Known about the structure:
Elements: E1 2-7, H1 11-22, E2 27-31, E3 47-51, H2 52-60, H3 64-70, E4 93-94, E5 97-98, E6 120-124, H4 125-138, E7 142-145, E8 151-154, E9 159-163, E10 166-175, H5 182-186, E11 191-194, E12 199-208, E13 217-220, E14 223-229, E15 232-237, H6 251-262, E16 267-278, E17 281-284, E18 288-289, E19 292-294, E20 300-301, H7 309-329, H8 338-362, H9 366-379, H10 382-393, H11 423-426, E21 432-436, H12 444-448, E22 454-458, E23 469-472, E24 478-482, H13 488-499
Parallel strand pairs: 1-2, 1-10, 2-7, 10-19, 21-22
Antiparallel strand pairs: 3-6, 4-5, 8-9, 9-10, 11-17, 12-15, 12-16, 13-14, 14-15, 17-20, 18-19, 21-23, 23-24
Helix pairs in contact: 1-4, 1-7, 7-8, 8-9, 9-10
The structure holds flavin-adenine dinucleotide.
Flavin-adenine dinucleotide (FAD) binds near residues 7, 12, 13 and 178.
Organism: Streptomyces decoyicus
GO molecular function: monooxygenase activity
Protein name: FAD-dependent monooxygenase
Amino acid sequence: xxxxxxxxxxxxxxxxxxxxxxxxxxxxxxxxxxxxxxxxxxxxxxxxxxxxxxxxxxxxxxxxxxxxxxxxxxxxxxxxxxxxxxxxxxxxxxxxxxxxxxxxxxxxxxxxxxxxxxxxxxxxxxxxxxxxxxxxxxxxxxxxxxxxxxxxxxxxxxxxxxxxxxxxxxxxxxxxxxxxxxxxxxxxxxxxxxxxxxxxxxxxxxxxxxxxxxxxxxxxxxxxxxxxxxxxxxxxxxxxxxxxxxxxxxxxxxxxxxxxxxxxxxxxxxxxxxxxxxxxxxxxxxxxxxxxxxxxxxxxxxxxxxxxxxxxxxxxxxxxxxxxxxxxxxxxxxxxxxxxxxxxxxxxxxxxxxxxxxxxxxxxxxxxxxxxxxxxxxxxxxxxxxxxxxxxxxxxxxxxxxxxxxxxxxxxxxxxxxxxxxxxxxxxxxxxxxxxxxxxxxxxxxxxxxxxxxxxxxxxxxxxxxxxxxxxxxxxxxxxxxxxxxxxxxxxxxxxxxxxxxxx
Length: 504
Ligand SMILES: Cc1cc2nc3c(=O)[nH]c(=O)nc-3n(C[C@H](O)[C@H](O)[C@H](O)COP(=O)(O)OP(=O)(O)OC[C@H]3O[C@@H](n4cnc5c(N)ncnc54)[C@H](O)[C@@H]3O)c2cc1C
């Protein structure tokens, strides 16, 4: 009997496995694929963009350097410990309309501090999964390949995942088994949303006439195409999602679609690899049913426009990991696990709407063109670009934790003590962190009551942003913020609320 069985060793399942392993849970990961490697996860089709929130998650667990190296990035932004400025902003796009980062009103972005986590990191699934599975194994997680879960049963005490004749019992089961999740259906989750308007393709090809294709993202009178790197083509065809994903796209089909959406005569001489997707946008109505939970694509699917699926899934795993571990170990305050759905479901819903809005704007008809004109006007303004940037980068994410303090519910800035210690470094062991900048270190005695669940660090800060103290949850979210003379009782209430009763 394990504490947790995770179904699916994709990036989200593996990230969650690391979180649970770090917190001392016994974890079994069951993965259908007989082996981890797949050409769809390597360059070029496996390329994925990680947002600052995801890069931060790796940083906070001490995996940033390995992630950068595995992604081919050799200048580590964290190498400069005296950096005074946050890393440069990257613009991104909305429905192919590119943002100008110079137009972002930096003063309007709350609490930005220098951090080793960069704004956007281009990586590929293979690197991410290799790094995470090595880390999970080091933390004692058992990962088994070639096991397809086909049934789930649960009662008050445990959940059982079945694969053929084999049964795997655990106190909790988490479906991280992707967009076509088996766990979702087997555990009775309701999955609701909207049907597709388009079929998208990602392909690695050799072509004749490639010079006719423009670089960047191209909205055309018949669809959209982009060429992120030589021979790597993405395209969207507004066919109502008619192309059936279960069939392999042939060279003739791909060539016909590319010629139509690009308006060129390009010839595909060879198709090395191709996959298709749609913009079906669906989400489960809850992320927990009894002892079964969902995270990542298993809980929400949408088009890859804006590259948010993996980032949302990593956010799910960070949010769920410590809450599930506290529940397993028996010190979770009442209702802690249910805050997972309460906090993450609205984030997933907002991502679905963001992709729906982009699809509406990209429609190759007068309606789409009218929306594009409005969006172009808006992103020509400072406020419009700042709004888009906050949505794209995840800076707008703020959980409603019942506090009016503008920092509470947001990802904590990478606060640093005068002695050079960074918040991110203090989070490596997966505990929460209390940072006390008050001159008399007035929270020290209180924090000792939660020592096994929370680290305490005190001293003057290089930039305390006007704060006297902050309490940061293990997922990096600010749970409480105190002013220059922190209120000890308020701190203790917040600590008890998130970490349960004090140990002493
Ligand atoms: C073209 C394209 C580009 C994208 N670009 C980006 C991007 O730039 N940024 C971004 O954030 N997101 C992007 N995404 C989305 C991102 O790839 C996904 O959201 C992410 O991979 C989901 O991870 P996951 O772990 O939830 O699911 P998956 O990666 O699908 O992993 C699920 C795992 O579960 C296993 N499994 C399935 N069923 C079973 C079963 N019954 N038993 C056991 N195991 C099972 C599968 O074999 C698989 O290994 C893109 C997607 C596409 C298609």
